[in-house]
Design a protein that fits this description.
By secondary structure, this protein is α/β, with parallel strands linked by helices. The chain folds into 2 domains: 114 residues, Rossmann fold; 124 residues, HUPs (Rossmann fold), CATH 3.40.50.620. Helix content is 42%, strand content 24%. The chain has 10 helices and 12 strands. The strands form 2 sheets. The protein has a 10-stranded mixed β-sheet with strand order 5-2-1-6-7-12-11-8-9-10, sandwiched between helices. Strand 9, helix 7 and strand 10 form a beta-alpha-beta unit. The longest helix has 24 residues. The radius of gyration is 21 Å and the shape is globular. The two termini are 19 Å apart.
Length: 283
């Protein structure tokens, strides 16, 4: 891995997210590109108004003092990021995106190895985690996405969600290819089955999968679980509440898994109460 993108709100830089991104960057010996995103469309697109039954386009009046303040704020945040990378001994790049933020970051993800994002990143001051912006980004990003925790400890355990699907295997393989330095950590594979009897074909796949894991990871343990993947993952991390040194690796579990797993009620519990990094990619 050579290039990591860090999604940064140009108006609200969080040094805590940089701490985690720098840890991953140094681990993989990758360059860290801070993508400073401004949603200028939100402020500059005129709205359609109606007075007395007549429609008209509202005029946008630019507040030069406010624009100057924003420019200074963004400049200071970029400086803080750059100096923070120097202090953390990480090679930094700066990308300053203006316009449509979702389109821009998806476009950039096509040419990156990994995208790190704060789950609360939003232009709408939402309380839900992950935000609508991040949820949509997860479904459309063209590289793996690593959801950053609010606070982190050096990782010593990787929890891999596996249900036998192409998507779950693909995510685990991508994790290894992008972060091979974590291969010597303790690996817990949560083998999640919707039904207790998977049949002969799945057993054969399990043998092949275990063989691949043993060739790539030093310490692998399997935990066989039956039920809904979303509920199992939440229960596992709540029971094993020494979670700050863990990372979850998960695929999409089919096309609707991300939207199901990250519905607000579950996400609030998993990402706020548990607060772990989550490596996500879809097939």
């Amino acid at each position: 891995m050579e290039k990591i993108l860090l999604l940064v709100d140009a108006h609200n830089f969080k040094p805590e997210t940089l701490d985690f991104a720098a840890y991953i960057s140094k681990l993989s010996k990758s360059k860290l590109a801070g993508v400073f995103v401004e949603n200028q469309l939100q402020d500059t697109v005129p709205s359609l108004k109606t007075v007395g039954g007549t429609a008209y386009v509202e005029e946008i009046i630019v507040d030069t003092d406010a624009q100057k303040h924003i420019s200074e704020l963004v400049s200071n945040n970029i400086t803080s990021f750059t100096s923070g990378c120097i202090q953390r001994e990480v090679q930094a790049l700066i990308h300053h995106d203006k316009g449509d933020p979702l389109h821009n970051i998806i476009e950039e993800s096509r040419y990156a190895d990994l995208l790190i994002a704060d789950p609360s990143f939003s232009f709408d001051h939402e309380l839900r985690v992950p935000s609508r912006f991040v949820t949509e980004l997860l479904g459309k990003a063209e590289c793996p996405v690593l959801i950053a925790p609010e606070y982190y400890e050096e990782l010593d355990e990787i929890v891999m969600a596996y249900d036998g699907s192409r998507s779950s295997v693909f995510a685990i393989k991508q994790f290894y290819y992008q972060l091979p330095k974590l291969a010597d950590k303790r690996i817990i594979v949560l083998h999640i089955n919707k039904e207790s009897n998977n049949g002969h074909a799945t057993s054969r796949q399990h043998i092949h999968f275990r063989e691949w894991l043993d060739m790539h990871f030093a310490k692998v343990s399997f935990l066989e679980l039956t039920g809904d993947a979303r509920d199992i993952l939440f229960e596992y991390f709540m029971v094993h509440n020494d979670h700050n040194n863990k990372m979850l690796v998960t695929g999409a579990f089919g096309r609707n898994y991300l939207s199901t797993f990250f519905r607000p009620s579950t996400a609030d519990l998993v990402l706020k109460a548990v607060d772990i990094p989550i490596f996500i990619t879809h097939y």
